[in-house]
Amino acid sequence: MDTGPDAEARLGQLARELADGIDRAIAPWVERSVQRVLEAWTAQAGRGQAPDPVVLATAAEAGRRARREISPQIRDLLLTDVDHQRTTPLAILRTAVRYPTDVLRAAGVPPVARDPVARRQFPDDDYDLVPGSFGDLDPSLHDLGIAWGAAKAFVFTQRRRRGESA
Predict the structure, then answer these.
(1) pLDDT at position 49
(2) How distant, in Å, are the alpha carbons of 50, 86, 93, 131 from that of 18?
(3) 7, 127 in Cβ contact below 8 A?
(4) Half-sphere exposure of 63 (CA within 13 A, CB side)
(5) Which of 13, 27, 95, 98 is most buried by a 10 A CB count?
(6) Is position 166 within any domain?
(7) Which string of DSSP letters, residue by residue, matches 73-86?
């Protein structure tokens, strides 16, 4: 990989692609998360019924809200120079767990059993929904997230080797 402007340009391109992908994927992820937990809960409770359409409509609105509120934060971060990024897009994305969680809580769905480490790391994630990677949001983002992370690390390291920072 080039150590100069081409590497920086490639990082910028990957950052924009990742931001666009997250923007497209976040609302459907909220909806799928709610539906998956609702279906598991109704099956476990022996209800054998389809998820409540009102709850699913609420999940769709929560997904749109997540997109409006979370996507711009992620895009801003990804388009910020790597030397000035103080968090990660995945850390911001993980805060989106509140959207499906709020819908499920309001629907009266009880929390699921979670690993003690997960409970410690993500105490507000009652339904074990926090994405571990971009691929958990959408499988199409897996490789892109890795490529962006590698490009970021490469640019950051090369700048340090040259004694540069932005």
Answers:
(1) 75
(2) 34, 18, 12, 15
(3) no
(4) 21
(5) 27
(6) no
(7) HHHHHHTS-GGG--
129 is a domain residue: yes
Q: What is the pTM of this model?
A: 0.90
| DSSP character at residue 46 | T
User: Which structure tokens are listed for 85?
Assistant: 């990024």
Domain that holds residue 87: 5-161
- Looking at residue 47, what is its pLDDT? 67
Buried b (16+ CB within 10 A) or exposed e, 49-72: eebeeebbebbbebbeebbeebbe
User: Is 19 contained in some domain?
Assistant: yes
Spatial CA neighbour of 141 closest among 101, 72, 93, 81: 93
Alpha-carbon dihedral sign for residues 140, 146, 67, 115: positive
Which residue has 């990677």 as its token pair? 133
For residue 44, what are its two tokens?
A: 């476990």
In a domain, 97, yes or no: yes
Q: What is the pLDDT of residue 52?
A: 85
Query: Looking at residue 144, what is its pLDDT?
Result: 97
Within the chain, which residues score under 50 in pLDDT?
Answer: 1
CA distance linking residue 21 with residue 114, whole number of Å: 29
- Alpha-carbon Rg for the chain, nearest whole angstrom, is 19
pLDDT recorded at residue 1: 45
